[in-house]
Amino acid sequence: MKTAFVTGASSGIGRATAVALAKAGFQLVITGRRRERLDALAAELAPVPVHALVFDVRDRDAVTAAVIGLPPGFAAVDVLINNAGGAHGLHPIQTGDPRDWDAMLDANVRGLLNVTQALLPGMTARQSGFVVNIGSIAGRDAYANGNVYCASKAAVAMLTKTMRLDLLPFGIRVAEVDPGAVETEFSEVRFKGDADRAAKVYEGFAPLRAEDVADVIAFVVTRPAHVNIADVLVLPTAQGAASSIFRQPA
Prior knowledge:
It is a single chain. By secondary structure, this protein is an alpha/beta fold. The protein has helices at about 10-25, 35-45, 60-70, 100-125, 145-165, 185-190, 195-200, 210-220, and strands spanning about 5, 25-30, 50-55, 80, 130-135, 170-180, 230-235, 240, 245. The chain has one domain (about 5-245): 3-Layer(aba) Sandwich (Rossmann fold), CATH 3.40.50.720. Strands 3-2-1-4-5-6-7 form a seven-stranded parallel beta sheet, sandwiched between helices. It has a two-stranded antiparallel ribbon with strand order 8-9. Helix 4 (about 100-125) packs parallel to helix 5 (about 145-165). It is globular.
């Protein structure tokens, strides 16, 4: 049974991806910062073998220790889903909070690098593996007040391209899946727990669900070994660009 390693699996796209990959026949390493949610997911996925790891992807030492400590049955990771990350704040650059900038750059960029580098020695030694980075339409198409979040996801896009080149001699596939508007905890986190403001983001149209993105991820990683779907943009039908959503009148 192949092993998939999913970061940010306690909610949203990460959680839905873990469910989709379990259905596709993978055993799972699920990671996040909320032990109770990971344990609940592991119980839900039984009898699929699941190993839960609690760490923050921004903590390089914790990431390294967790990967080194993987049980033998889970240590040979075939697929890495770099999903952990998020947005914090929505302000023009001149009034942005540097603490929000740090949180986004640390999780979306450095966190992705920490986890990837921890798992690559095994993949390069086996000369096989698959790394899927979850980006965003924001990495392709800027929108007002999205400055540092857009920049962090643009960095993910360039890292994906350069990883693919660096890992080409090892037979390791590297792909990026970029969602548009997905209704998850994303906006509630961005707006510091303001549920009413977060709900307004998704009013007047049908956004993607986490399961829609997970279906795409599962399809990408289950293609034959000679096929790499390297780059996918997934939008709700009502979205034409990052800041262009057709909303039905109330």
